[in-house]
Queue: 2 jobs
Job 1
Amino acid sequence: MQDSPAELIQVLSNYDLGELIHHDRDRRGTVNVSYVIETVREGQRRKFFLRKYKRGVRRDEILFEHSLVEHVARQGACPVARLHPTRRGQTFVHGPESEGDAEGAFYAVFDFLPGQDRYTWVGPRLSDAELHSAGKLLARFHSAASTLRPRGKRAEPKIRDLLKIIGSQWEEGRAKPKGTAFDDFLTRNFSLVRRAITTTSAALSRPTARGFPEVFIHCDYHPGNLKFEGPEITGLVDFDWSKIDMRAFDVGLALWYFCVSWEGRSDGRLRLSDARVFLMAYQQALFSQPALAPLSAAEIRGLPHMLMAGNIYVLYWTLRDYFGKDVDPEEYLVYLRHGVAFTRWFASRANRGRLKRMLESIPRSGASASLRRMRGAAAPKRALPRG
């Protein structure tokens, strides 16, 4: 979709939302194409968020995502944007591209949520209060979504099966180089990541991990998909990667996004104190929710492997985009270096030991004494960062 109002007007003709008077392309997304639009109807101006889904997405995946969004919005526990129905009562529009694509494209219109887009997924450094809010919200999302029977189906395999696919595609990655610094760095660190994929795949295939609870997971829960007012979260967005999978994987992936440093020599280092704040908030929120139990002792012990699975998941996206699209090699080299840096940090026995000791301090499902301590704990008080 180009920055032309013609296609936007055509999409909006399916809705009763008024006349388009302004539109701005949202440049933050890397998968779909989205706009902040403004309309006027009966003299009233309103803002919405219009999304054009990526090429190749299936109708069943749209139905799955939208049933999840509608269900969570109805629960009222999470600040999720409401979907606007078309005149025919559908949650999306399916029509031909302006350039004559026979497959057509899917579009949807959401409420525009208030708050600041304070972070992206690259280089976030949240305050304790923001981390506490983020951990609590992920728990509330998991709990709210746990009672849904969805329409449609997400095409992507669960992480346990996906790791086998990732292993094969990692092997194939070196066979189609573009002759850039990205390829050179990939070659130098190929074996390190391959070992991590093999080890993580084996860990997630063990009987204990196979017994981990599966729920609706966000699968893209990072600071760039949250909107803030002060330390509070006013918006949770981007559910198109959501699926049913181990909730411990969603927690591990979130910890990777929120708590792994991107800064200089610290690149790839897990900030253990940040991870503890996030996890304590997650557990605390679920101790008071009847629909879903907090993380169990086994899930907490398995979080190191879930962290690495999250790292591999993002490396997989990096590799697919680099080899499958016309992207900036220098930009994607930053992502590749970051994932490799975490892999190196995790490979250290001393670092894994520190991570294990931190996790041992996290209260878990069934720990009554820990529950009492958490209920009496004060909320984080560290000041918000300026700017």
Job 2
Amino acid sequence: MGNLLSALNLAANSMDVIEQSIGVVQNNVTNANTPGYVRQIPTLIARPFEPQNGVTGGVVFGPVQSARNQFAEQAVRLQNSLFGTASQAASSLDSLQQNFDVSGTTGIPSALSSLYSAFSAWATTPSNTSTQQQVITQAQQVAQAFNDAASALTQLGSNTDQQLKDTVSQINALSAQIQQINVHRRNGGYNDAGLDAQLNNALESLSNLTSIDVHYQNDGTVEVLMGGQTPLVIGTTQNVLSVGFTTPANPANAGAPPAAVILDSDGQDVSRTVTDGALAGLMTFRNVTLAGVRGDSSNAGSLNQLAQAFADRVNALVTPASGIPLFTTSGGATNAAATLSVNPNMTAADLVASSATSSNGTADALSRLGTSTDSDPTLGMSYTSFYALIATTVGQQQSAAAAAASSQQDMLTQAQNARSQISGISLNEEATQLIQFQQSYEAAARTVSTINNMLASLMAMTV
């Protein structure tokens, strides 16, 4: 009778263990499409079988194991950071490229072409009041074209600054989420599959914004470092980032747009640790690419160089004896394009076509500014060619960034697929395992039923 009762207990215990295992499999199937969730593996632990000591064996349900592979996760995060850099660079450069028309039908190229035509017409009829006025009018159009281009770059800079702030806010929000997850994991939620999925979703999202190193601690928490150096989350403590703007002492260009920097919660500049991700793409675009065109504390910017060189050359040729220049600029080297204007004191009557050597030498010299052979001594090429160089450089950078983004998207997809093969959920495998557990459960149930019948028969025999 005692052996039957022991067998009945073992069978009943087996049913309980199998039921828990079925629950794990069913949870896998339910969460097959849940982002960040990985296959959970039920474990069965055999009890010792020592009949002589009254130890009857059987199994107990062990801790559920996760199929998550941290090397695969790290590979995905790395590729995600690189993709974040390239995709953000492509997007920002696309916005910059839209401000430069290489067709010559709009903007600065069109305005320069019209002014060159006005110079030519003036050279043909140097004393004609109408052609003189046309020079003034077209010069105003050139100034307006440079003003519009500078305004567009200023707006793009403001948009980029806002993107930087938004990106840092997203980083802080994800860091706060990870910090809260650390609190729960430290308080006993280390083996919570749902919490684990939330953690890895947050880490993957964070890796797209900035490069991170993740270190798992013995208490169940994770340590997250930006660029391997700047702490974002340490245990249950978060380091909040912010965007700052700085100008070096005694800058070459006073009043130039300041450089953007990333500050930690203590106000320290940690920009050097922003190596990849969308944040790195924005920082490079703003402080390097955009600064190369609109200028910064040490660089006038190619658009301002073009505006100032053109104004200086025209003024050197057309300034009359009265000393009134045709073009004026103000505010320093980085504001030449934004402030370029036609001198309000210049009138058509002040335009003198003659030079010391020719009756229309000034007008002729001005009309040649539109030829490819007439290079500016400062720029080393014609003004149209210099503008085309700016536009072409931006276009090439955008094309390279778009190609890099496409390539990194492929690399990211490959890493994600490799991770899925290791720790993803196969419905076919889960279905097979579910059938096996169900059959085992049915077998244990029949064992219970059989032992129950036998006990009932024995009880009847003893009556």
